[in-house]
Amino acid sequence: MVRVRYQVKENAATDIDGQQIRTALGAANNIASIERIVVPEERQRRTVVTRESSLEEAMDRYIEQHDTLVPLKQTLIEKALELEKQYELQRQNHA
């Protein structure tokens, strides 16, 4: 008697060929079940930024949604504000 239970990520669920699994189990006297457990994909939250958001607010919201960036948050925001300041100075000089 054979019971098969497998996990598959949501985006790969259609790649699994159920018939091929049954064929591979052909020598079994009895197949109790073939159970597929689909692991849902983690959905990315979208960063909500409006025209009224400052660069610092927009950066803060974006970084908070990306765990790998959180440790760099202060540095990233400082550098972004520095670039914004440089851009504004160049724009004023060319006006």
Task: Describe, in plain words, how this protein is organized in 3D.
The protein has 95 residues and is α+β, with helices and mostly antiparallel strands. It contains three helices and two strands; from the N terminus they run E-H-E-H-H. The chain has helices at 18-24, 55-64, 73-93; strands spanning 2-9, 31-39. A two-stranded parallel sheet has the order 1-2. Strand 1 (2-9), helix 1 and strand 2 form a beta-alpha-beta unit. Helix 2 packs antiparallel against helix 3. The longest helix is centred in the last third of the chain and has 21 residues, at 73-93. It is rod-shaped and about 80 Å long. The termini are far apart.
Keywords:
95 residues, alpha+beta, two-stranded parallel ribbon, 40% helix, rod-shaped
Please outline what is shown here.
The protein is α+β, with helices and mostly antiparallel strands and 95 residues long. Helices cover 40% and strands 18% of the residues. A two-stranded parallel ribbon has the order 1-2.
**Strand tally:** 2
Please state the average pLDDT score. 89
Structural class by SSE content: alpha+beta
Low-confidence stretches: none
Spatial shape: rod-shaped
Radius of gyration: 26 Å
Structural topology:
Layout: E1 2-9, H1 18-24, E2 31-39, H2 55-64, H3 73-93
Parallel strand pairs: 1-2
Helix pairs in contact: 2-3
